[in-house]
Amino acid sequence: MKYVFGPVPSRRLGRSLGISPIPPKTCNYSCIYCQLGRTSVLTNERKMFFPVQNIVKEVKKALEKEHVIDYITIVGDGEPTLYLGLGELIEEIKAFTNIPVAVITNGALLYDQEVRKELLLSDVVLPTLDAVEERMFRIINRPHKDLKLELIIEGMRKFREEFSNQIWMEVMLVKDKNDSKETTLAIKEILDELKVDKTFINVPIRPPAESWVKIPTNEVLAEAQRNLNAESIAHFENLLIESVDRDASPEEQILSITKRHPLREDQIMTLFPNLNEEEIKKMLEGMSKKGLIKIEKYMNRRFWTAKEEKKK
Questions:
Q1: pTM of the model
Q2: Are residues 196 and 292 in the same domain?
Q3: How many independent structural domains does the chain possess?
Q4: E strands in 134-208
Q5: Would strands 198-202 and 14-19 be described as parallel, antiparallel, or unpaired?
Q6: Do residues 28 and 147 lie in contact, with contact meaning Cβ atoms separated by under 8 Å?
Q7: H-run or E-run covering 257
Q8: C-alpha–C-alpha distance, residues 225 and 202, integer Å
Q9: What is the pLDDT along the chain (312 residues), one digit of tens a residue?
Q10: 293-298/301-306 β-pairing
Q11: What is the CATH number of the domain that holds 193?
């Protein structure tokens, strides 16, 4: 499928059927910790990237299979609120299923009244807030030039006033950037103002966009968790292993996963019980030589990730 994947196990959302309504790496942020690498298309302009009905058809097809699904999650390999058909898409989904709809967003466009209006149709919105000071915001999230943190936070305040369903905030912590006691307490002040229903702490567990990005120590994470009154999802890997087409070849399965997130080599070894370690390594080397995937080292582990397709 082009737009739909899963269901995928998620710490926050249980069994989640994912929808990506935007082209890969299209975002209004280019976060230093992003597992997709640096943003290819940095834009703040909303577009109808794909016809709504094309996405809806795939969702219906996925729901025909006998899967347990807790949420239908609009997420994307970038920022899903850039999709101009977001409201229509949520409305269409709501018309044929009672499964709750979640939207994972960086929250940057919540200053836009139309975006807020479209998101009112969802059951859970999961924005991100990694900084409450402009300088650090620009260091960590590297936003589009038109975005200002003050405007974004004000948009979050307005959305909270208008939205009666659940808001679950995520804070991504990066060592020596936003993990100090002062910073986490400052973020907590804003979260209290926003009256978020839940707060989650995350860390970059896969190779980030910038190789110098590191995970805070366990002691610092524990303090941040207390300061933010948050649940940690720092050590939960939301893998796409279960979402691949088992009728596809091993190469196609690996490519399907690595296009969405880097995959540890030891995880790949468990994917194919009918192949031995030597056969899998040979397959990976062959895919690498073809320019399909590349290896990255992070936290003393080997990860395989899809190579970015060259634009024609």
A1: 0.84
A2: no
A3: 2
A4: 166-172, 198-202
A5: unpaired
A6: yes
A7: helix 250-258
A8: 10
A9: 889 987 877 878 988 999 999 998 999 999 999 988 899 999 999 999 999 999 999 999 999 987 789 999 999 889 999 999 999 999 999 999 999 999 999 999 999 999 999 999 999 999 999 999 999 999 999 999 999 999 999 999 999 999 999 999 999 999 999 999 999 999 999 999 999 999 999 999 888 999 999 999 999 999 999 999 999 887 655 554 554 555 678 888 788 777 777 788 887 887 788 888 888 888 998 988 888 888 888 777 888 888 776 544
A10: antiparallel
A11: 3.20.20.70
For residue 208, whether the previous peptide bond is cis, meaning omega lies within 30 degrees of 0, is no
The pairing of beta strand 4-10 with beta strand 124-126: unpaired
Answer whether 2's CB lies under 8 Å from 58's CB. Answer: yes
The token pair that represents 109 in the structure block: 């466009």
How far apart (Å, rounded) are the C-alpha atoms in residues 189 and 277? Answer: 50
* Domain termination residue (choose one: 210, 232, 254): 232
Together in a domain, 24 and 100? yes
CA angle 83, 53, 97 (to 5 degrees): 95
Q: Is residue 151 a contact partner of residue 193, using CB atoms and an 8 Å limit?
A: no
Contact by Cβ (8 Å): 265, 279: no
Which two tokens mark 305? Answer: 């990730």
Asked whether residue 311 is assigned to any structural domain, the reply reads no
Q: What is the CATH number of the domain that holds 272?
A: 1.10.10.10
Residues 6+ apart with CB under 8 A from 276: none
Look up the domain containing 17 and give its range: 4-232
DSSP 206: S
Tokens encoding 171:
């804070």
